[in-house]
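Help needed: design a sequence for this.
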């Protein structure tokens, strides 16, 4: 993977990796809970043939700061600050799981910063059913700040009501990537989410589960690059 660099965004330093030509259109990648920018290693090489790619470590993860204060709108605002600090916008915004939800909120809040949007298996902004529980943190050195999981579970159980309504403000052509029946994300919610976004389509990679870009990188890239080309 690329060399790790850091940039100050508000009250946190955010780590990121970059690839591709400096004059290529920018793409920003947002990982899922418990991961970091390395999570994209299986697909970033292909993306970097057409885009200048930035894979961010979100707050509480990887080499970015772990300030102890988390939530989807904090992750959203960090990503907005990152795009502005590096003077990148508008960008192709690509997120998985927690990063997919963050990407949706960013595209709704600041549509001017997003040229294309890919949300892979995002946590839909509807109350989890059944309600999620926070287990005890695993033993040994922490891979990420467990308080980030506590915050994410709390907001999955009781998301802000305006999040769903805000989806209609997304103007970027959007791809919602679903992993099919083996995913723990209710697939009907992803279909409803795609319907709520004005210019969105849903692609289901049946059998991929929650980790589409890892389990089926070829099918994932075919769908993503099709959107990025148009």
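Sure. Designed sequence:
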């Amino acid at each position: 993977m690329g060399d790790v660099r850091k940039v100050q965004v508000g009250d946190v330093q955010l780590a990121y990796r970059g690839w591709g030509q400096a004059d290529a259109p920018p793409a920003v990648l947002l990982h899922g809970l418990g991961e970091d920018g390395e999570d994209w290693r299986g697909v970033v090489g292909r993306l970097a043939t057409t885009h200048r790619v930035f894979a961010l470590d979100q707050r509480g993860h990887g080499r970015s700061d772990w300030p102890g204060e988390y939530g989807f709108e904090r992750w959203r605002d960090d990503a907005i600050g990152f795009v502005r600090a590096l003077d990148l916008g508008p960008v192709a915004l690509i997120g998985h799981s927690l990063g997919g939800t963050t990407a949706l909120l960013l595209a709704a809040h600041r549509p001017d910063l997003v040229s294309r949007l890919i949300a892979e298996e995002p946590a839909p902004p509807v109350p989890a059913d059944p309600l999620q529980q926070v287990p005890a943190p695993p033993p040994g050195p922490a891979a990420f700040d467990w308080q980030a999981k506590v915050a994410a579970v709390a907001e999955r159980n009781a998301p802000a009501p305006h999040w769903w309504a805000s989806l209609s403000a997304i103007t970027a052509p959007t791809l919602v990537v679903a992993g099919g029946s083996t995913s723990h994300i209710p697939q009907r919610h992803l279909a409803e989410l795609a319907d709520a976004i004005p210019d969105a389509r849903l692609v289901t990679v049946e059998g991929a589960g929650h980790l589409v870009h890892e389990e089926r990188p070829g099918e994932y890239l075919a769908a993503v690059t099709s959107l990025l080309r148009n």
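The first strand starts at residue 4 and ends at 9.
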